[in-house]
Amino acid sequence: MLVEIAGEADPVIRVRGLRMRYGSTDVLRGLDFDVRAGEVVTLLGPNGAGKSTTIEILEGFRERSAGEVRVLGVDPARADERWRSEIGMVLQSWRDHGKWRVRELLAHLGAYYARYSTPDRPRPLDTDQLLDTVGLTELAGRRVATLSGGQRRRLDVAIGIVGRPRLLFLDEPTAGFDPEARRDFHDVVHRLADDEATTILLTTHDLAEADRLADRVLILAGGRIVADGSVDQLARRVARLSEVRWSRDGQRFVHSTADAAGFLRELLASPGPDVEELEVHRTSLEDTYMELVRGHENGTGAPEKAVEVVA
Amino acid sequence: MNAADLLTTLRLGATRGWITFRSYVTSREGFTQTVFWNALPLAVLIWLRDAPLPGTTIVVSALVLPGIIAVSLAFGVMSTAYNLATEREDGTLLRAKAVPGGTSGYVVGLSVASALDAVIGIVLVMVPAMFIVPGVPVGSALLWLGLLGWTALGLLACLPLGILIGSVVRNPRTIGGLGFLATTGLAIASGLFTPLQDLWSWLQVVVPVFPVYWLGVGLRSVFLPAEAAALEIGGTWRVLEAVGVLGLWAALGLLLGPVLLRRMARRESGSAVEARRQLALQRN
Which end of chain A has less Cβ packing within 10 Å, N or C? Predict the structure, then answer.
């Protein structure tokens, strides 16, 4: 079928000029990106940046306003059930299937994939093994409503991968997790990416999480992609920048610069009152992220030139 | 969808319906509800057991029993609609939609669960009623065949209608409140508990539009002796009309229900469920 026609060389996700408009509000203003087979890509951005909208368009749950989208070679807005069988998604559970038992729900939802099973790719995954993978074996007979938030989330993950998807969407997967649950979840994602070569696209606004999971980070702000690169590339871009803080004549200043030493020489040599409370910081990933996002949201351009006066 | 796919969908849907139903009745809430709503009509039957219907040789409980069964089926409309609206709100429908063929499986499952709920209700009332109510023709094959036939036709008319209403009315609390009042009011106005001739004449015009009235007619025709036909409008069992009207409701529901449901299901997404969750949390 269409899914097979898409060769290995083609990206798993291909997005060109994606726009989304609700009424008179532009949520997405022209996204371009690819996700290649086996990649783990994080879509990072502040609340309201359009992360969930993007994922829902790729999942085929939302009609886009304009642009070209191909997921596994197919337009998700016109995809069939076979296409759907190749896609996994980890939904935020709330109260659904509360009265069902854990094992029962996982086995039932898995059964829908059986008709797409092939000898070299048997589906669904074995229910008991999967329960073991996500650490829910002992809770298999419990009703879903009695699970804690973290346990429920692990069940969500199990449901998302029970059909052995080639592409997995994770929308804010660890919102509300305690640190231990978060680490367990990261392990599951790593295993999926390594053992099953599953392509994964996840959204988060947690930078540490993006850092731990992603091969590549896309930063979404103001409806555009403002940065696209591996975590290393972004870190290198960050490492160039330092933040200089000082006060002069009672006023406080902050300046980001790639050449801290040169800037300090000029600053100290400049005429005027003495420079006080001088501090120099290596900019963290978080600082750059904040600057990138802020710069794009109020349209002040490149962060390197941003000098602000803090009253 | 080819034949094999259809069979798979029906099998998955039947499994889903059975698990949904079993999970519900074995939960504390479901058990309490099931006991209460089936004990209530039994109490009424015991209370009215020997009360004579003036001017006839039949007793009130015999007249009310087929009415109770008709109401059980009519409440199938409400419970189907209520469950659909609730499960859209809580993300059950979205979860089903995320798996291949899941929406079809969900609809079959919803219908099976509602049908099981209605049928169990009928069995729970019918078995004790055979011993409580005088004059139930338990030895007659016609009664059991008739009960089976009217139940099947009633479910066919009511369940798709429930899916239709549940797809259009967004708020489960509206369905639970207004739907309950409307169904109960309609049941009373349909002469399920008292002959329709005693009620206002304009009701005799409006009420026969709805399926619950005709279910009452059909079920009374198999439960009551021939002389009781004198209590009906026109003085006869209008069985053909009953089949016709119920058939029309079934056709309407089966044609429109899936279309409206599909349209509604298409709009479901994670953020739509999240938005409703936020609303619900504010209400609580």
Answer: C
B70 is in which domain, residue-wise? 3-283
Which of B1, B99, B277 is the mutation pick for testing A, counting most A CBs within 10 A? B99
Q: Tell me what the pLDDT averaged over chain A comes to.
A: 84
Quick check: helix, strand or coil at residue A101? strand
pLDDT > 60? residue A302: no
Q: What is the pLDDT of residues A146-174, one digit of tens each?
A: 998 888 888 998 999 999 999 999 988 87
Instruction: Please indicate whether, in this complex, the C-beta atoms of A97 and B105 are within 8 angstroms of each other.
Output: no
As for how many domains chain B has, the answer is 1
Report DSSP state, residue A202.
E
Residue B158 or residue A211, greater confidence: B158
Check B100 against A94: CB less than 8 A apart.
no
Superfamily of the domain at A1-86+166-229: P-loop containing nucleotide triphosphate hydrolases (3.40.50.300)
Question: Inter-chain contact B270–A95, Cβ cutoff 8 Å?
Answer: no
Helix (H), strand (E), coil (C) string for A139-197: HCCCEHHHCCHHHHHHHHHHHHHCCCCCEEEEECCCCCCCHHHHHHHHHHHHHHHHHCC
Q: Is residue A67 scored above 50 in pLDDT?
A: yes
Inter-chain residue contact B24 with A92, CB threshold 8 Å: no
The SS3 of residue B269 is: coil
Top pLDDT among B147 and A94 is at B147
CB proximity B227 to A under 8 Å = no
The pLDDT, as a whole number, for residue A306 is 33
In angstroms, rounded to a whole number, what is the distance separating the alpha carbons of residues A310 and A254? 7
Q: How far apart are CA A228 and CA B80, in angstroms?
A: 48
State how far residue A186 is from chain B, nearest Cα, in angstroms. Answer: 22
d(CA B266, CA B73): 29
Q: How far apart are CA B84 and CA B20, in angstroms?
A: 13
* Average pLDDT of the segment spanning A195-210: 86
Q: A302 CA to chain B: closest CA distance, Å?
A: 32
Distance of alpha carbon B63 from the chain centroid: 19
Question: ipTM of the predicted structure?
Answer: 0.88
Can you give the residue ranges of every domain in chain A?
Answer: 1-86+166-229, 98-164, 235-310
Q: Kindly state the helix (H) or strand (E) to which residue A199 belongs, with its residue range.
A: strand A199-204
